[in-house]
Backbone:
């Protein structure tokens, strides 16, 4: 063995050895217990970030552990088309050549993005290999694979036929820069200071941050319990600049303490106002279009963007002395999670899924523990989100995604929904002139079907054997976006939960506990760390010291420390190997019989470590299992036992070899590369004798 473990020299060839051997593929047998993780699919077009590395480390530890326990283990990898995120990045590439999405028809733009994704997809997959992901690449899926698309279309058709899908004109969150709507879950709420304008509406004063929308006002609302305005209900307020009369109404949604307690009602551009407007059957006037420009206003404002319109309206209100005062308000404002632009709530025709029936099934499954949350706090959070979900806007006005299989009749204006095939005629009036909806599905709609869609479309038809899957392990920040929706649709379509356990992992932060971002300059590149210290070191550092569900404050020092741990194991093996080389020992290793006190002590400590690690891994307490391993190798084995055997190595050699072999097994899920290399050097009978498929030791 070399004097020091050189990860650069060995990791790539070890991974090729595993992959070529077929070790990543499950042996499906009725006698074997199935264990399955469907990999949360990384963006096909982006390199992995440090959060992905933690996810890979967590899942691969579980996969290797259960594989060694003799279970039929499937870790199914995939790639996500990632909807608006991928299109947004591609539009950035177009901008560099002075082009935009508007320069191409939809089919051409889709093909361009497709080619770009396929050209870059291998980067992400190669990085997964570099991190040691022992997933079955023969079963890899892409969210835009034809068979996946077919299942997504079938789901939409079933929802439509069951009365759970409708196309409605409702207020939605809209990004005028990205040109698409978003669900409420996809809107970031950022804190900021804005001007709070107190405006003269004749007999009443209102306060608003958005004077440019006054032309869309249809009423002023006050709380029925507010004695200040009880005498004004039923009278008329006057919109300044245009002098339009609007009624003063009462509604319990109005907060008496906010502003003046009088709320201008603009149903087309505010969610609360829309709800009040629906309840009181108020008209709807839109003054901002989907591109973010003013419409349906006095001519001087038409065509202005929102910012310029606000400035112009403010100036005119000031000239007419309609501004009573201006304060500063600190509040939350919706922002596009992708481009950070301010979200414009606006009336739009979209496809919606009625979530209430789906929510009922999900809540029941969680309450009955059909699906269990490893961290109880996330069960409470999941239930909270489910109980407060609104109907799900699943249509997006982008090219990159799965086109909604709906056709509109030009004669009767009714919609025909299919499983993807083009209908020959209108379902309602039998007319033949139909136009397909150009919208695409929300990427979360398609990915919420990922567990069963992947297993139903593999060559081996794995659904019957592996579904429900064993564990779902994404980061906790996508619990409302993805996890609860997978539960909802999984139960709706299969009658079963999609996974037995939800193991949500925390985020990776920098060494000071600060959220990692490019703007802060604290990004940790997982591939750079892997190249510098090795995959084993990075993986071990990512699970070290904190529970899976907690955030991990990662530092280069921590990664370096785990590199030292891998080297410690290597040096232990070198010590054992020195005597082995002299005596040409290699082959079957059995537990030795000994009466030596030191031998008996290390064998007992090994047994206790195996027992403890097994219990901890079964409970998903990976950090505690890693600490048990670290303490045994560093303290019990290396610092204590090896020091005591130097004077009697020949006598102790059978115990040394036995303890080393068993130690490699329990170390393998955490340090797969260095442990496999030591195994090949010291214990493998031939090239097919791999540690990755060896048996997890049993404690007595």
Residues:
């Amino acid at each position: 063995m070399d004097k020091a473990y050189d990860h650069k020299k060995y990791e790539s060839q070890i991974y090729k050895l595993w992959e070529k051997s077929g070790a990543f593929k499950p042996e499906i047998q009725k006698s074997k217990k199935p264990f399955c993780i469907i990999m949360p699919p990384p963006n096909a077009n982006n390199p992995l970030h440090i959060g992905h590395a933690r996810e890979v480390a967590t899942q691969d530890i579980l996969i290797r552990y259960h594989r060694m326990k003799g279970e039929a283990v499937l870790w199914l990898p995939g790639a996500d088309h990632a909807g608006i995120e991928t299109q947004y990045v591609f539009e950035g590439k177009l901008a560099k050549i002075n082009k935009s999405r508007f320069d191409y028809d939809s089919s051409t733009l889709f093909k361009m993005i497709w080619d770009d994704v396929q050209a870059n997809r291998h980067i992400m997959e190669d990085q997964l290999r570099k991190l040691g992901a022992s997933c079955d690449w023969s079963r890899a899926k892409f969210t835009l694979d034809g068979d996946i698309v077919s299942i997504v279309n079938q789901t939409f058709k079933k929802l439509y036929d069951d009365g759970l899908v409708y196309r409605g004109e409702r207020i939605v969150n809209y990004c005028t820069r990205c040109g698409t709507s978003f669900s409420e879950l996809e809107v970031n709420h950022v804190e900021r200071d804005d001007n709070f304008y107190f405006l003269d509406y004749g007999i009443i004063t209102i306060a608003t941050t958005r004077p440019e929308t006054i032309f869309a006002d249809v009423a002023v609302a006050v709380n029925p319990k507010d004695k200040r305005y009880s005498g004004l209900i039923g009278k008329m307020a006057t919109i300044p600049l245009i002098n339009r009369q609007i009624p003063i109404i009462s509604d319990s949604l109005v907060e008496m303490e906010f502003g003046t307690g009088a709320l201008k009602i603009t149903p087309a551009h505010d969610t609360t106002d829309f709800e009040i407007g629906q309840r009181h059957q108020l008209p709807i006037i839109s003054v901002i279009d989907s591109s973010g420009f003013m419409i349906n206003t006095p001519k001087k404002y038409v065509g202005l963007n929102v910012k310029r319109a606000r400035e112009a309206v403010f100036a005119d209100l000031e000239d007419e002395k309609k501004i009573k005062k201006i304060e500063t308000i600190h509040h939350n404002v919706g922002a596009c999670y992708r481009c950070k632009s301010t979200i414009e709530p606006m009336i739009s025709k979209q496809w919606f899924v009625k979530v209430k029936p789906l929510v009922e099934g999900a809540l029941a499954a969680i309450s009955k523990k059909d699906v269990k949350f490893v961290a109880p706090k996330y069960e409470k959070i999941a239930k909270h989100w489910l109980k407060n979900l609104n109907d799900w806007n699943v249509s997006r006005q982008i090219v990159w995604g799965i086109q909604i299989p709906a056709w509109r009749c030009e004669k009767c204006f009714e919609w025909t929904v299919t499983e993807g095939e083009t209908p020959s005629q209108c379902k309602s009036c039998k007319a033949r002139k139909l136009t397909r909806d150009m919208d695409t599905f929300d990427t979360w709609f398609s990915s919420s079907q990922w567990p069963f869609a992947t297993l139903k479309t593999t060559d081996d038809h794995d659904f019957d054997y592996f579904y429900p899957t064993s564990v779902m392990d994404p980061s906790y920040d996508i619990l409302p976006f993805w996890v609860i929706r997978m539960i909802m649709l999984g139960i709706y379509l299969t009658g079963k939960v999609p996974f037995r356990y939800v193991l949500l992992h925390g985020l990776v932060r920098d060494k000071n506990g600060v959220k990692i971002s490019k703007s802060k300059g604290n990004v940790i590149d997982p591939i750079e760390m892997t190249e510098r210290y090795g995959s084993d070191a990075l993986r071990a550092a990512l699970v070290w010291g904190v529970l899976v569900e907690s955030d991990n404050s990662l530092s280069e020092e921590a990664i370096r420390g785990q590199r030292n741990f891998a080297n410690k194991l290597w040096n232990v093996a070198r010590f054992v190997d020195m005597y082995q080389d002299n005596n040409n020992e290699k082959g079957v290793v059995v537990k030795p019989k000994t009466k030596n006190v030191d031998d008996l002590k290390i064998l007992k400590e090994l047994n206790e470590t195996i027992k403890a690690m097994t219990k901890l891994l079964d409970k998903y307490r990976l950090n505690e299992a890693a600490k048990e391993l670290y303490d045994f190798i560093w303290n019990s084995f290396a610092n204590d036992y090896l020091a005591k055997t130097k004077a009697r190595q020949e006598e102790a050699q059978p115990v040394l070899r036995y303890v080393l072999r068993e130690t490699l097994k329990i170390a393998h899920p955490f340090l797969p590369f260095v442990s496999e290399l030591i195994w090949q050097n010291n214990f493998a009978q031939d090239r097919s004798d791999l540690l990755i498929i060896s048996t997890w030791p049993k404690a007595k």
